[in-house]
Amino acid sequence: MRDSGMGRQDLLKINNCLLVLLLCAICSFPVHAHADQDYIVGEGDVLKITVYDHPDMTTVARVSGEGEIYFPLIGKVKVGGMSITMITERITSLLSDGFIVGPQVAVFIDEFKSKKTALMGQVEKPGLYVLHGRTTFLELLSNAGGLTKDAGDTAIIKRKPVGTDKGEDKITIDLRKLVVEGDMSQDLQIMDGDSIYVVKAGVFYISGEVRKPDAYKCVEGLTVVKAATMAGGFTEIAASGRIRILRKVDGREKVMEKVDLNERVLPGDVIIVPESFF
């Protein structure tokens, strides 16, 4: 299985993308979020409700644990589990029933509180995030400060299926396709209760006659000669024709002798560059 990391150019591209998203968020208008009309309201959300030509009825109310708010003239209104469109129609109907002729009601989300997701792993600010209406993976990643330098090319979403007791679904986001290839089908919408984990890139190890023996991130298309270049190149006494790779296969260590310089390097490989006899 491929577990290559994001390269420097890839991270630069995703940072540029995140910058655009941040600028869009800063420039958004108006102040009160015009939530997606299909947004389902839940406990803790704060609604702002206005009635045209009736400023005295403007109400800001937090949804209670019972899914209710209090509204002038009509008292308690059940809104939990309802969309913005449904709430608007519900309050309009109640006001029309003997209170106001032809009321024009507008409902906004003043504060998003009920929908949350956890973003963990190789992001700058892992933690629990509130979903402000419809939120995609890139928008959430922007809020988390972007990827760390050790990020791999995969994010895993664990999601509980709606209306069933079955186990979690596992959804994979290919960060390389999303960022490098611009495949926006990978920019999935994040749902309430999602648990997201950005995996760490695999590493390889190189020792012996290279100038900087160490552990390095395993990137896409890595070969032995590229690995040696990452390690500063061969020394003057390196025997480049007798390089060995120690690789675990099915839990057992396999020794590959005299590997070709174009041999593909896999995460976990140990490359040994011996000294020349002459």
Topology, pairings included?
Layout: H1 8-26, E1 46-51, E2 59-62, E3 68-71, E4 75-78, H2 84-96, E5 105-111, E6 116-121, E7 127-130, E8 135-136, H3 137-143, E9 151-159, E10 169-174, H4 175-179, E11 189-190, E12 195-200, E13 203-208, E14 214-217, H5 224-230, E15 244-249, E16 252-256, E17 270-273
Parallel strand pairs: 6-12, 13-17
Antiparallel strand pairs: 1-2, 1-5, 3-4, 6-7, 8-11, 9-10, 9-12, 13-14, 15-16, 15-17
Helix pairs in contact: 1-3
Can you summarize this structure?
This protein has 278 residues and is α+β, with helices and mostly antiparallel strands. It has three domains: 8-12 and 114-200, Roll (Outer membrane lipoprotein wza fold like); 46-111, wza like domain (wza like fold); 203-273, Outer membrane lipoprotein wza domain like (Outer membrane lipoprotein wza fold like), CATH 3.10.560. It contains five helices and 17 strands.
